[in-house]
Specification:
The protein is α/β, with parallel strands linked by helices and 364 residues long. It has a six-stranded mixed sheet, with helices on both faces. It has a six-stranded mixed sheet with strand order 9-8-7-10-12-11, sandwiched between helices. Strand 8 and strand 9 form a beta hairpin. Helix 6 packs across helix 15 and helix 10 packs across helix 11. The longest helix is centred in the last third of the chain and has 25 residues.
């Protein structure tokens, strides 16, 4: 079964073609796209010889409220993506454009959406509920959903192989978009992100957690709410904290050159991550293992050190040499430590492809 996975960003397009295995047989795309429709047409042109064998086009979609899991992208699913577009402005609109464009160009190829929220359907009512006025959850979909589900699911499954006795796992997906997930016996219990991908830890350019009345305060001061939302989704986070950049490599290089804003942004991010780890450890009743993934989590020994510093009371302790030398999949905690710590490259596409195959082959 051949599956085309399309990964859409606000200014990027990447794709991967999968056969029957877990590894892609072809990859392509561009990191800087000014015309998404034209980029999609170029992708189709590149893949034209293989399109006859494609059983489905799969997307790792982000926010559809109660439409979640892995589903066919029918009108109900598209309506849900549109309804929550304001909650995921960097994700839902470009995905909707791509889905609708490919629907028009390739009308006979089924489209499948693997929602990032799907892994978190196992949360308790206490974990997912927001203390909003009665009826608002049903009317507006206001509750906590959690995101990065494909990544956290992959980490949960990989940790079950590497550490089969580790029942309580903290999955730290740290990159341009970051979240930490508490996992018990392979199932998501809670996470740092809540209603939207803007919540939780400071992101590269997105604000992270913010008191709702901060926006009311801005509005009372004459700031347009839509303008405020746009700025909080594109000019905040590490970029806003540093006054320089939201990119980890830029910040670490600037810190080495003495840039105080960069240093402060990295310290503030590590503090937020440490605090989230403590809260989620409480939700689990302790920690058996921690996994770092994502661009920042995998490639920055310094950030991992900053985050783990002071977490010894949870049994979280790094081996400095292993941490510095880690490349690819690696354990970076000392032998015999109460909690093992791993660097684990994630593979979200593998989860999307597997779920798509399961959906297409399930008995009707």
């Amino acid at each position: 079964m051949t599956i085309l996975v399309v990964n859409v960003g606000s200014t990027s397009l990447k794709y991967a073609l999968y056969g029957d295995g877990d590894a892609p047989i072809e990859r392509g795309g561009a990191g800087r796209v000014t015309d998404l429709a034209a980029a999609l047409d170029e992708m189709i042109s590149q893949l034209r010889p293989q399109l006859a064998d494609v059983a489905a086009i799969a997307f790792k979609v982000v926010h559809g409220g109660d439409v979640t899991g892995c589903v066919l992208l029918d009108e109900r699913a598209l309506a849900a993506l549109r309804r929550f577009a304001a909650a995921a402005p960097a994700h839902n609109p470009p995905y909707l454009l791509a889905i609708e464009h490919l629907r028009h160009v390739l009308p006979d190829v089924p489209q499948v959406g693997s929602f990032e929220t799907g892994f978190h359907r196992t949360w308790s009512p206490e974990a997912r509920t927001l203390a909003v006025p009665a009826g608002w959850e049903e009317r507006y979909g206001l509750r906590r959903y959690g995101f990065h589900g494909a990544s956290h699911r992959f980490i949960a499954e990989r940790m079950a192989v590497l550490e089969p006795d580790a029942r309580r796992v903290l999955s730290c997906h740290l990159g341009g978009s970051s979240s930490i997930c508490a996992i018990r016996d392979g199932a998501s219990v809670d996470a740092s992100m809540g209603f939207s991908p803007q919540s939780g830890l400071p992101q590269a350019e997105r604000v992270g957690d913010l008191d709702a009345f901060a926006v009311a305060h801005l509005a009372a001061g004459g700031v347009d709410v839509q303008q405020a939302a746009g700025a909080l989704a594109s000019q905040a986070g590490l970029h806003g904290l540093s006054g320089l950049s939201g990119d980890l490599q830029d910040l670490e290089a600037a810190e080495a050159d003495g840039h105080e804003g960069a240093s402060f942004a990295l310290r503030a991010f590590a503090y937020a991550a440490r605090k989230a780890i403590g809260a989620l450890a409480a939700a689990l009743g302790g920690v058996d293992a921690v996994a770092f993934s994502g661009g920042m989590g995998e490639h920055s020994p310094g950030l991992r050190t900053r985050i783990c510093d002071g977490l010894g009371f949870l049994g979280i302790e790094l081996d400095a040499e292993r941490n510095a030398d880690a490349a690819g999949e690696a354990r970076i905690s000392p032998d015999g430590a109460p909690a093992t710590i791993w660097v684990l490259p994630t593979d979200e596409e593998r989860i999307v492809v597997r779920q798509t195959r399961e959906l297409l082959t399930a008995p009707s």
